[in-house]
Amino acid sequence: MIGPVPPPIHGESLAIRHLTESEDTREKFQVTVINTNRKRVNSGGKFSLIKIFQDIGSAIRVRRIVGKGQADIVYLSISQTKLGLIRDAVIILLVSGKVNQIVAHLHGNNLKNVLESLHPILTKFIFNMMKKIDTGIVLSRGLSQNFMNLPKRLEVIPNGIGRNLIRAQEIESFSKVKNGEGHCFTILYLSNLIEAKGFSHLILAAMDLLRQHANIQLLLAGQVYDRKLFEQLMNRVAQERLDSRIRYLGTVTGVKKKQLLLKSDVMALPTSYKIEGQPISIIEGMAAGLPIISSSQGAIPELIEDSGIVLDVINRYSIAAAIKSLITDKALYEQYALNGRKTFLKKYTMDHYIEGLISVFERGDTDEEKNLIRHQLFLS
């Protein structure tokens, strides 16, 4: 398996970690992982010698493992930057004809844009390499155009999280507190704090609502990348003495994240991040029975369905209006919450995610002799 694993934490790295650590995966395959993660998720595509040497090191390791006949399947979490795509094309060149199957998994929505922006010489090389991909995987049907019909086959496998991460009884228990008199309506932002993900619009919307004496609080959780913008906004929050209602919690994981989801009333991710695919944080919100406020970026509209509000325009005013509608319309709130939980259980559990990927890996072996050999799954 070739791809990013935490740290740092982001949707793609979490999805790959779940796959590599799954008992079902480990039972069926011998797994080797090559980590391609960068230190900063918003530095993608920027030239640096460190990245070049890191990518050369990854390619050398791939060549050594495949050259020894230690890989039957190459799973490549395909990059959405020019530099990363060149690396991936070289990896495909190195493994083509030496393994039974090449699987490329797209975890976002920027691949087509990158392919169309390449120099003609690079375009020919990378297109030829992508035609060697046996199966391309996307998160939703709406993202399939990113592969430009280059792989031999396309599959749709949505992201997923553990079915029992949040149980129905836990949601019911916290709902009693939320329905109590004087409850402070809690808005949760659970993602890396990158400007394009809309955290600044959300903070400004919360400030507007608090000035109107709305009984709300905004909790932000995730790693800060656009530090200057974040500090400017939080200084304004402090100056207006709103810092008890707009709080940054840092990066939260495990039990702390679960408690945060259960205590919140709505999840907001007003993103325009160009590589956004199918945010795992939104799936976590749906699992917790939280109505979602988000955008039409990537596969988000298909993900949310009838579980929240998809904003056509992203600014402080549209976000504030969406929050108001969920506070004042209790029936709408309950409908979105119920729909989100049902949709999660039906489509976006970890069981569905892992089963879908394993079925792709196993279907690639049609020769009976190959089926007698224990698979070695090489994640790139």
What does this molecule look like?
By secondary structure, this protein is of the alpha/beta class. It folds into two domains: 187 residues, 3-Layer(aba) Sandwich (Rossmann fold), CATH 3.40.50.2000; 180 residues, 3-Layer(aba) Sandwich (Rossmann fold). 47% of the residues lie in helices and 15% in strands. It is built from 16 helices and 13 strands. It is globular. GO terms for molecular function: glycosyltransferase activity. This is Glycosyl transferase. It comes from Sporolactobacillus putidus. Pfam families: Glycos_transf_1 (PF00534).
- Please tell me the CATH architecture of the largest domain by its name: 3-Layer(aba) Sandwich
Instruction: Report the radius of gyration as a whole number of Å.
Output: 22 Å
Strand content: 15-25%
Count of discrete domains: 2
Residue stretches low in confidence (pLDDT < 50, at least 5 long) are 366-375
The name of the CATH superfamily of the largest domain reads: Glycogen Phosphorylase B
Secondary-structure element sequence?
Answer: EHHEHEHEHHEEHEHEHEHEHEHEHHHHE
Tally of extended strands? 13
**Euclidean distance between termini CA atoms:** 4 Å
Query: Based on helices, strands and strand pairing, what is the structural class?
Result: alpha/beta
- Please bin the fraction of helical residues: 40-55%
Number of helices: 16
* Large-scale geometry: globular
CATH level-1 class of the largest domain: Alpha Beta
Side-by-side strand order of the widest sheet: 1-2-13-3-4-5-6
GO molecular function, one term: glycosyltransferase activity
Keywords: Glycosyltransferase, Transferase
Protein name: Glycosyl transferase
Pfam families: Glycos_transf_1 (PF00534)
